[in-house]
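User: For a benchmark we're assembling, each entry needs the component sequences followed by a predicted structure for the full assembly. Here are entry 17's components. Please fill in the structure.
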Amino acid sequence: MSLDKTGIAKRIAQELQDGWYVNLGIGIPTLVANHIPKGIEVEFQSENGVLGMGPFPYEGEEDPDLINAGKQTITVRPGGVFFDSATSFAMIRGQHVQLTVLGAMEVAQNGDIANWKIPGKMVKGMGGAMDLVASAKNIIVAMMHTNKAGKSKLLKECTLPLTGVNCVKKVVTNLAVLEIKYNKFHLLERAPGVSVDEIIEATEGDLVVPDNVPEMKL
Amino acid sequence: MNKVVKNVEEALDGVKDGMTLMLGGFGLCGIPENAIAQLVKMGVKNLTCISNNAGVDDFGLGLLLQEKQIKKMISSYVGENDEFERQMLSGELEVDLIPQGSLAERCRAGGAGIPAFFTPAGYGTEVAEGKEVRVFNGKPHILETALTADFAFVKAWKGDTEGNLIYKGTARNFNPLMAMAGKITVAEVEELVPAGELDPNEIHTPGIFVQRIFQGEKYEKRIEQRTVRPKP
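Assistant: Structure for entry 17:
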């Protein structure tokens, strides 16, 4: 069985390390906050200007002056802080944030990522994604392995306008965990019950498959 | 120095067709609601608007888009506005999409007397087209230029008669940066107090950056994505 979105988020949450500041993108990445491993402390940064993001508010306690980058109402944890957008991106560009998790439409085997534009069709803008991918030390892409038409999103080369170049090092999909190095995808783990052949079939880019590919432990 | 103006009409006096405006806010959070309503009322056209987002169809900058008052938008993310997307794809609206951190820093630079700076954001993408590239510490960066505006419209929580401003929560966002970059910066606040009532230690935007200040008549403060969890 391939993973659902929650499963992808759970697997990414295992990558979190104690003391990290983490920026989570919109969509699957947001779910990572629900699965922080026991015994570690991380703080979430949202690029619209908050550090120490807490859970969503209880009904009736929403504050229009307190939102995340996805424009959702949020709360702030004790010790949280607000700041302006230039300070926020100083944290990001200055590599004070240890991990960025974001979604993608395409990832290439050289680490290029495309997630902001489909020419002539969808033009929403890049938001903070270009600043995040250009500077982050650790970038994990959270996405489905294939698009709605069943085509691979892990490619030799991106076909859509790029968000950043040579920046993605790890990808977690509904089928697998992959590392990007030496201009190839390297299969690290497979989702429970998913065969190596299924992953090979769903990956257009060059894929290095070791003899033994362990199942993810969730 | 007293920066107080009587009302929103006086606050926006001098805004003309073809001007470049900055408008603070992230999504609908911390937007200058009263200034936007007055821009609609004045009917000024051919505006270049610098704002992180473009509002939603029936609120925020979406109101100006509906009236076709905007010629060009400079933004980072415009995904919540169907009319925007329609005008952009049909070519009616000129759009310059730039990375959010570069947008923030370009405003800050404009207000801080820094004409341009290098950033890694956007290198190797279409954002970098036509821009100077230089390598620092082994990594390529692109040259981004500062932004300024004829008028900057910002929204704060509290302000005093000197134009000193305090923002609330994530409603701060682009407001302090745009306040610095406006030739004329107009601040609207929820609560206007006499000088001396705000603690100088707590002020976010010093009044030197603000030319006009007024208390907004009303604030809708619409929530774009109301997200809650059930009470235990």
